[in-house]
Structures are given as structure tokens and as C-alpha cells.
Amino acid sequence: GENVEQHPSTLSVQEGDSAVIKCTYSDSASNYFPWYKQELGKGPQLIIDIRSNVGEKKDQRIAVTLNKTAKHFSLHITETQPEDSAVYFCAASRYSGGYQKVTFGIGTKLQVIP
Amino acid sequence: DTAVSQTPKYLVTQMGNDKSIKCEQNLGHDTMYWYKQDSKKFLKIMFSYNNKELIINETVPNRFSPKSPDKAHLNLHINSLELGDSAVYFCASSQNTGEKLFFGSGTQLSVL
Fold this sequence. Notes:
Strand content of chain A: over 45%
Largest interface: A-B, 24 and 25 residues
Number of strands of chain A: 11
Order of helices and strands of chain B: EEEEEEEEEEE
Distance between the termini of chain A: 41 Å
Strand content of chain B: over 45%
Shape of chain A: globular
Structural class of chain B: mainly beta
Helix content of chain B: under 10%
Radius of gyration of chain A: 14 Å
Largest sheet of chain A: 6 strands, mixed
Oligomer: heterodimer
Number of helices of chain B: 0
Helix content of chain A: under 10%
Distance between the termini of chain B: 34 Å
């Protein structure tokens, strides 16, 4: 089955700096890569996603890059703010048996220091 | 107006008891899920239903039984609760399976 590795597990940055979280996946058939943000006491929330036919996607201060050859993808947050503090999960998804099966990474706890 | 709502938010119970968690989504999605998040924050799929049909059934003890009376509801019943069942359980839904999941706020289950 799919294996998704995510690092770092914790990340502290100063407000205004950039944060980068990296993930690798094992199954070359994976074709959809979402990122979720989980704030304390809440459920994960989709913040950005990318498909395997796209190399980069940007949404304001958030961007995701995908390298299919190397099987890795990254989340970039620029100009970080205290409200960016949360746990971030990457995931890889592939079509199997009639449905998309999602595998999550272990999460990265991001702390933005004011 | 909450998109995916689950109840209760907190559930504290004794070992051996039976309990249920309910979930409802008002997004008109076809697919619903139950995820378990352990103390290390790892998210693991348990079950998924598409239009009331079970499509994903991961390696979960038989004590866990999902039920989907209609495509807007997915409940989780747990028999003979064990200490290791303590975790946060998240319900989620999506229009297409496995994509753009909308999660509920979670049910923190504590088995004493």
C-alpha cells in the first residue's frame, strides 16, 4: 500500500518568515495530493491540493510543489502569521477498486512565534 | 450552519460499555468517512460509505460497526469498549471519494 512520509514533525518559525513542510510518497499511481490544516480542538481543513498533472499551485501565501519523478511534494507558507500555527497534514491519494484511497502523513506541528 | 456535525463532542465511559457517535452532513455529499486520530495525531481511515454502501473497511475490530441510514448520516457504534479505543474520532464527507474531505470537529472518546 501507499506510504507517506512527512517531515519535520515540528517546526518553529518567526512571524514573517517562511515555512516549508516536505512529504514523500511511495506509490507512483498516486494522483491527488491535498494538504490539511488542523487547529487545536478542530477537525482538519483542506487548505490546498494539487493533482499529478500539475507541478505547482499557489493560493495567496500558500503554495504546493510536486515532483512526480522524485515522488515528493512540499507545502510552502510565506510571510507566516501567528494564526498559521497548527498541525499540517499532507496526503496522497490514488484510484483503487472504484474509489480514491487517501493516506495521510504523520503531521507537522507548526509554531509561528510573534 | 455546520457542514459536518458530529455528536457528542466528548464521551467518557467505562471499559466494556457500548456507545454510539452520530454524524450528519448538509453538503449533499455522496461519500462519508470515519477516521481515528490517536494521541500522536496520526489520522487513520476506518470506514467509508458511498451512497449508503460500504466501500472502505480497514482493519478495524468487529466491535466497531458503522451504519448509514441515508447518505447524509453515518453513525458509529462501538461495543465492549477497551482502553485502546480512547482517541478522537472524526467524521468526514466529500463529493468525490477521497478528494476534498470536509471534517467534523471530532468526538474525543475516553475509556476509563
